[in-house]
Amino acid sequence: xxxxxxxxxxxxxxxxxxxxxxxxxxxxxxxxxxxxxxxxxxxxxxxxxxxxxxxxxxxxxxxxxxxxxxxxxxxxxxxxxxxxxxxxxxxxxxxxxxxxxxxxxxxxxxxxxxxxxxxxxxxxxxxxxxxxxxxxxxxxxxxxxxxxxxxxxxxxxxxxxxxxxxxxxxxxxxxxxxxxxxxxxxxxxxxxxxxxxxxxxxxxxxxxxxxxxxxxxxxxxxxxxxxxxxxxxxxxxxxxxxxxxxxxxxxxxxxxxxxxxxxxxxxxxxxxxxxxxxxxxxxxxxxxxxxxxxxxxxxxxxxxxxxxxxxxxxxxxxxxxxxxxxxxxxxxxxxxxxxxxxxxxxxxxxxxxxxxxxxxxxxxxxxxxxxxxxxxxxxxxxxxxxxxxxxxxxxxxxxxxxxxxxxxxxxxxxxxxxxxxxxxxxxxxxxxxxxxxxxxxxxx
Length: 444
Description:
This protein is mainly alpha-helical. The protein contains 16 helices and no strands. The protein has one domain: Growth Hormone, Chain: A (Up-down Bundle), CATH 1.20.1250.20. The protein has helices spanning 3-14, 16-38, 43-54, 57-69, 79-96, 108-131, 133-136, 140-171, 175-200, 216-223, 227-257, 264-309, 321-357, 362-390, 402-427, 434-439. The longest helix has 46 residues, at 264-309.
């Protein structure tokens, strides 16, 4: 394939990330705030509902992975699910942020059902989607180049989903009506960009399912022998808790610690500056990775992101915008390294598995990876809300106590550091280099 062809394929695959990032970051940033401060559900109840809704993901993610591994169609194994997942994701996102306008707003069963539907839509799209890179691209370094598009679209999705969504809701009238209009607008965008990938990857390589029918339990057992994947999975599990905590606490710290009545503007400043830093620094992280390998680069980015989180201890209503934006820029720089390395290492571990076993089971790996992502997206806000409740947060109170405000500040500073610090332990056991991948041999 020509260089231009490679770029078209990289873009065609990467643009789907924009839809996924809009959904994931929109939820990560607003679901806790929306359910507590708009719908009026207590923090403890919301934490419980998020936990219950995500139990379904333990079943759905590996199941979709297995199904896509075994699919035969004129569009390949993965691509049909991109369209189906796009429709379900867009509709469920819009439905969630319209809950307060429905007769079911006070029904915990309805809230759980809609949360589970959102998760199902994301699973249908993301599990096959994340299984595709190891099929589309076989070169170790080219995967990193392709994943630059993914990181770019993650940054854009974060800017809109985590930053602009709250401001959009405010501009569209605020309250239940504003959130509903925002949800419908972003729901349409989510469906559009997810579906775009179906067409953008039409000319890409696709692999057929393995003719050897290995039972699912046996595939999982063999997969757990993939030590680089297990190390990466454990790393991502802890880091995603830190990232989703960072996303969920943003609106709380701006509203209650910095004292901004309409937090959407400052949240947009934060994600906007972070976005620019992420985009500008991707070539830097790629350059570093070529010289010291992906694992060490990943550890460097992790350390930087953790240290910057501690700066929230300095946050007060007197904080000036320039310092707020400096923190955002450093966060964005660290996040670019985290995302680029973590994302590009997944297809490396899948390719390593294929070279050792001869089995095409990308869907199982991406399914397990997606389980971790989905569990973290629910449990991290749950832990955060339970921490807020411990410090006395009252979802119906117009003003929080000084103790609660201090608690929100401490959670913002220390929880991400704890999660990212723990992630360095499994990351230190990741041993897959470019040379190891080239020299990988079949198991005896």
